[in-house]
Design a protein that fits this description.
With 368 residues, the chain is an alpha+beta fold. The protein folds into 2 domains: 95 residues, no CATH class; 261 residues, TolB, C-terminal domain (Neuraminidase, 6 Propeller). It is built from 6 helices and 22 strands. The chain has a 5-stranded mixed beta sheet, with no helix packed on it. Strand 21 and strand 22 form a beta hairpin. Helix 1 crosses helix 5. The longest helix is centred in the N-terminal third of the chain and has 27 residues. The chain is globular, with a radius of gyration of 26 Å. 29% of the residues are buried.
């Protein structure tokens, strides 16, 4: 009798637990039949307008079907009662299971000509400099001296459109050294540290712009620009120092997009020797920088050394190696596609400029 009573008690506890779990799910996902007024009373936050939500989280415009696949708990409604209890428990707690961390480093790029894709660019991009990727996965590029921004389909190397930053008929002339995109905004930086801010334009459009003086140009010549989403800042990469005591080091400054000013005590100083430990030679002269979309580390190219290096946001040099010299006359620009493909831009130096795409080796092992 005692054993029978224990079994009854255990069964009652299991049944109570299932009822509790079901009720919790129903509170998060009300049945379809509930009207909007009832739902609003239970959760007043649902009257946030769609525009505000989109600004705070642009990913909300992902297709519902994709959201459902990524977060299956949104499907627990009318079919809940038909599920097996064990299925319900697994469904509720599956998001707590450990997911292998995806890591991609410089070592995952073979940098071999036989695995790369190469495109020759039109003559108007002979002096191509900076690169950046838009939200809809188009490649943006600019020349050194004019604020004309070209959108390129990196799948075939064709120019899709071009627009310019200008308050008159002609584009702004300056010594532009880098480009970054943030949502629908475009940023260019000059060698003297001025930042130009404008919206992404239509083909042939002249776009009004804002200009900001960072002050970095007093000490260094700027050579690259990147966007760091984690910091909410643009990263300015410095090359040639104005004073002798600042030589033999690579310096990165962060410029706040919200405050439109440099972030205090957020600059990074990396001795050049930390790069030359990995490659032969005594110099490492950077020409472009980009943040990796998966690892969050910064990747830097050096035109004269025909090299690339990976550094952490805190300034640790992870690795550095050379490009195949026959494919890279003068690497000036760098960016990554959403899947991690590395894109390098080489100036033409009297010939056609070139884009080179390097895929990630063994990317399937990273969850793709």
């Amino acid at each position: 009798m005692q054993n029978h009573g224990n079994k009854l008690l255990l069964g009652f506890l299991v049944f109570s637990l299932l009822i509790l779990l079901v009720s919790m799910v129903y509170r998060k996902n009300p049945p379809v039949g509930l009207n909007e007024e009832t739902v609003h009373k239970e959760n007043p936050s649902t009257d946030v307008d769609e525009e505000t939500v989109h600004k705070e989280n642009p990913s909300t415009d992902v297709e519902k079907e994709k959201v459902h696949k990524e977060n299956p708990s949104t499907g627990l409604r009318s079919d809940l009662l038909n599920m097996d209890p064990n299925t319900i428990i697994d469904h509720l707690f599956q998001n707590t299971k450990a997911v292998p961390e995806r890591k991609i480093s410089l070592e995952n790029y073979a940098l071999k000509a036989e695995t790369a894709t190469h495109w020759k660019l039109p003559g108007r991009l002979e002096e191509i400099s900076g690169l950046a990727i838009t939200l809809d996965n188009y490649l943006m590029a600019h020349n050194d001296e004019k604020s004309v921004i070209h959108e390129i389909d990196y799948q075939n190397g064709a120019i899709v459109k071009a627009f310019q930053l200008s308050d008159m008929k002609n584009p702004v002339n300056d010594d532009f050294e880098g480009i970054a995109t943030v949502n629908n905004q475009v940023y260019l930086v000059t060698s003297s540290g001025r930042i130009y801010e404008g919206s992404r334009g239509a083909d042939g459009e002249s776009v009004l712009y804002n200009i900001y003086a960072t002050g970095v140009g007093r000490d260094y010549e700027i050579e690259g620009l990147a966007y760091d989403a984690n910091q909410g800042a643009l990263v300015l990469m410095c090359k040639d120092p104005r004073r002798a005591e600042l030589k033999e080091q690579l310096v990165l400054y962060r410029w706040s997009l919200d405050k439109k000013q440099l972030i205090e005590d957020a600059h990074i100083v990396i001795p050049v020797i930390e790069f030359t430990r990995h490659i032969e030679g005594k110099a490492f002269q950077p020409s472009g920088i980009e943040r990796h979309p998966v690892s969050g580390n910064y990747f830097v190219v050096a035109a004269r050394q025909k090299a690339i290096a990976e550094i952490t946001p805190s300034g640790q040099v992870v690795a550095a190696k050379r490009f195949p010299a026959q494919w890279h006359r003068q690497p000036e620009g760098i960016t990554f596609t959403a899947d991690g493909t590395l894109i390098i831009a080489d100036e033409g130096s009297g010939k056609k400029a070139r884009l080179t795409l390097y895929p990630v080796s063994g990317y399937s092992s990273f969850g793709k």
